[in-house]
Amino acid sequence: MIEEIVKSSSRLILALIVLAALMSVLIYFVAARRRASEKRLEKCKRAINNAKKALDSNDIYKAKQFYDGARNLYNGLKAKEKKEVYSSLMWLYNKLK
Q1: Which DSSP letter does residue 19 get?
Q2: Rounded distance between C-alpha atoms, residue 30 and residue 40, angstroms
Q3: Residue 63 pLDDT greater than 90, yes or no
Q4: How far, CA to CA in Å, does 77 sit from each of 25, 27, 83, 88, 94?
Q5: Domains: count for the chain
């Protein structure tokens, strides 16, 4: 009887260890995905700012290149992130069309 209790306790401990390991892996990947998304948003904002600077310098070719890059990054953003840069991106679009 004691052996059965020890076996079941060992199985429970092993299951908890495996569960903790799986949770750690899941948390790692969720955090990595979030960081990648934040990076994409920052790159989009930087491209928009660079396009505006190029426009200020009357360098339409560079401005269009930066706009294209920002638009490509924008397409990969989440809806909440898109709201942050939408008006700036549309302003650029209207200036460059």
Answers
A1: H
A2: 15
A3: yes
A4: 24, 21, 10, 15, 21
A5: 1
pLDDT above 70 as % of the chain: 95
SS (H, E, C) 46-86: HHHHHHHHHHHCCCHHHHHHHHHHHHHHHHCCCHHHHHHHH
Confidence of residue 6 (pLDDT cuts 50, 70, 90): low
What's 1's DSSP letter?
Answer: -
Range of the domain at 51: 2-96
SS3 content of the chain, % helix, strand, coil (to 5): 90, 0, 10
CA dihedral 63, 67, 73, 76 (to 10 degrees): 180
What would the two tokens of residue 8 be? 């079941």
